[in-house]
Design goal:
The chain is α+β, with helices and mostly antiparallel strands and 251 residues long. It contains eight helices and seven strands. The protein has two domains: 79 residues, Nucleic acid-binding proteins (OB fold (Dihydrolipoamide Acetyltransferase, E2P)); 129 residues, Recombination protein O, C-terminal domain (de novo design (two linked rop proteins)). The strands form two sheets. It has a five-stranded mixed barrel with strand order 1-2-3-5-4. A two-stranded antiparallel sheet has the order 6-7. Helix 3 runs antiparallel to helix 8. Bound molecules: zinc ion. Involved in DNA repair and RecF pathway recombination.
């Protein structure tokens, strides 16, 4: 297939040295998916292409692509930078994990659709100083569907009840109402409040998400539940997650 020049909107998120002064950088785009770009001469001092391909840069890029394999970054228009993601180690770690997570849910050039909006939403919020931990939990709950393990958060997996007190069962793949607490051995024994948070952040469309404020104990409980859901349903082992956990340990 012949290549073509194409304008894409995207976020740069993973860089590694390639040949000589060239760089490989991943770009996350909405319509064209995740693409690995060769950025020629990017590692030379004063390279403009290199500057436009810094981590967490976003904007309009002009690439030469054949729709598979490596593409080439040719030039760019209106590229901006999420400054505080770049400069703040903790925010950087959260943002890197989020983009890594999305990276693992898709194959290259597979359109991301609403998950691109999710990435932009999360990066914007973290960059603005909104609680990175809460934003990350929202992303993780919403990403489960992209990994093909969308839990039933709407209604009890056993009887369909939508209101009441709920717990969560990884084995059953969703929430269970208090009518079956005695018979469901696999439930996580979460507080009803934590389950309510998981439901809210997993279900609500981003544009309707208001400010979500969680006290530290609740945030820790939902963190542990989400980690467990990920551990027991997906085999990811992301280095970015490990780094984030270590960073939190030392804070
Ligand atoms: Zn039920």
């Amino acid at each position: 297939m012949a290549g073509e020049l194409k304008e894409v909107q995207g976020i740069i998120f993973k860089r590694q040295k390639y040949k000589e002064a060239d760089l490989l950088a991943k770009i996350m785009t909405k319509e064209d998916g995740i693409i690995t770009l060769v950025v020629r001469g990017a590692l030379r001092p004063k390279s403009k292409l290199g500057a436009a391909a810094m981590n967490f840069s976003y904007g309009t890029y002009v690439i030469y692509t054949s729709g598979h394999g490596l593409s080439n970054l040719r030039t760019y228009k209106e590229v901006k930078q999420f400054d505080s993601l770049y400069n703040d180690l903790t925010k950087n770690a959260y943002a890197s994990f989020i983009l890594d997570l999305i990276d693992h849910a898709f194959i290259e050039y597979q359109p991301l659709g609403k998950y691109y909006d999710l990435a932009l939403f999360a990066l914007n919020k973290i960059n603005q100083g909104v609680d990175s931990e809460v934003i990350t939990q929202i992303v993780q709950m919403q990403m489960l569907a992209a990994f093909g393990v969308e839990p039933n958060l709407r209604s009890c997996v056993l009887c369909g009840k939508t209101q009441g007190i709920f717990d969560y069962s990884i084995k059953l793949g969703g929430i269970v109402c208090s009518d079956h607490f005695r018979v469901v051995n696999s439930r996580l024994h979460l507080t009803p409040k934590a389950v309510a948070v998981l439901r809210t952040i997993g279900l609500i469309p981003l544009n309707r998400l208001g400010k979500i404020k969680l006290d530290p104990a609740l945030k820790k409980e939902t963190r542990q539940a989400i980690d467990r859901i990920y551990r027991e349903t997906l085999d990811l082992n992301l280095k970015t997650k490990k780094f984030l956990d270590e960073l939190k340990f030392f804070k």
